[in-house]
Design goal:
about 450 residues; alpha+beta; six-stranded mixed sheet; 11 strands
Length: about 450
Amino acid sequence: MYHKSLMILLLLKKLMANNTISFERTPAGIPVITQYIEDSPNTGFMVGVNTGSRDEESRVFGISHLLEHVVFRATKTRSSFQMSKEIEGAGGEMNAFTSKENTAYYAVTLTETMNTAKDLVADIVCNPLINPDDVEMEKKIVLQELSMCENDPSSYIHDLFSETIWRNHDLGHNEGGTSDIVKKLNDADLKEYYSNKYVTQNLAVFACGNVDKGEVMDWAMENFDCMTSSKGNIRTKPSVQPACYKHFLRKEDHCYVGFGFPAFSADHEDRIVLSLLNAVIGTGSSSRMFQQVREEKALVYSIYNYVDQNSDAGSFATYFSSTEENVKEAVDTVTKVYRDLKSNGVTQEELTRARNLIKGATVRYMESTDHKLHKLARNFMLSGEIRSEEERIKALDSVTVEDVMRVADKLIDSNKVTVVMYGNDAESMKNFSSDEVDL
C-alpha cells in the first residue's frame, strides 16, 4: 500500500512541476488566483460572483439563475451569435453556472487564442444589456429547464433533500427558483439585482493554464476594478434541524430517496475525513451501500453517497431509487449499514481503498484545465482557501481509522437524520417516521 501511495505522489509531483498557484488582489480588493501550467494547450478564465439562490428575496426566487442565462443573450458589443462564433473560432467553449452561493462565468480556449476567452468573459460580466425581449425569451428556456429537472427524479431528489434538511433557511432554496416566480420576473428586476450583487466586493477572478499572472492581474484591474463598489452579502448560518421524514408525491411506481445528515462546511478541518467516510459508505461498487443494498439484496438499481458543502454548512447523504415494493426494506437496510459502521467500525483495508479511489480521481482530473479552473474557484469561493491537488493528497494520507470513526460518531445521529422520498404512496412507507431510524 505504501508503494501505491508513493507512486501516486511521484505522479502528482510530475504533474505539479512547473505548475504554481498565485494569489493577489487588485487595488479594488478583488481576489485574483492564477494557476500557471507550463506548456498547457488550453487556458481558461473565470469570474466568480459571490451570489446565489440563498441571497435572493422571496419575491425573486430564481433570479440569480435567470440572470446567468440572460447575460449570454447580448452585451453592448456582441450578440449571442457573435459570442458563439468567436469562442468556437478560438477552439474553445464558454459557459456559466449558478449554485446556492455563487454564480460564475468562464471560457476555456486554446492557449494561443486565450485573449478571446478573456474578452468574452469580461464582456458578459461587465456589459450585459438585459433587454426586455431577451429576458422573456430566456424565461421560456429556464422554465423548460425547471420542468426538465422536476421530471428527472434522480436529479430532483437532491433539490428536495436540500429543501428539507435546510428547511426554514435560505440554503433550502432551489437554485432555479419556482416556475410561478420566474414567470413574473422582468428586466427591471434583473437590472436591479445585477446592480446590487455584481459589485467588486462579490467578485473573484481565476485563470488556469499557460498564462502570466501579471497579465491576468492587468486584465482584472482593467475590466473589474471599475465596477460598482458596495456591501457584500450578509448571510446567517443555518441551525441543525431535528430528525425528519418528508414524502413528496410523484405519480409513478419508482421511488427516489435521500437519507442523510447535516455535516461540515467547506472550510472545516475535518472535511477530508468526511470525504473518506463518505467513500467507505457509498462511493463505488465496493462500498458498503452498493454491496449490502444492491448486490446482496437487489433492492435498488442505483445507490451512492454524496457530500454537499457550503461556506457555513454541509450535508452528506445516501441516494437511491427503488420500486414501491422494495423501498421500505431498502430504507431499513441503509439504516443498518450506517448503524453497523458506527457499532463495528471501519477497517484499514476499507480506508486504504477509499483513499486510493479519491486519489485516483484527483490525478485523473488534474489533466483537465476546465476541472482545475472549477476546482480553484469552488475552493476559494466557499472556503477562502487555495489548495493544490498535492496538498489534498497529503491530507488524505494523514487520515486514520480513528479519525474516520470520530467523525462518524459525530455526524451519524438518529436525532439529526433527514429522510426524503419522492414517489407514489408506497404502502410500506405510509406510516413511516424518522423515529424508526435507529442508529
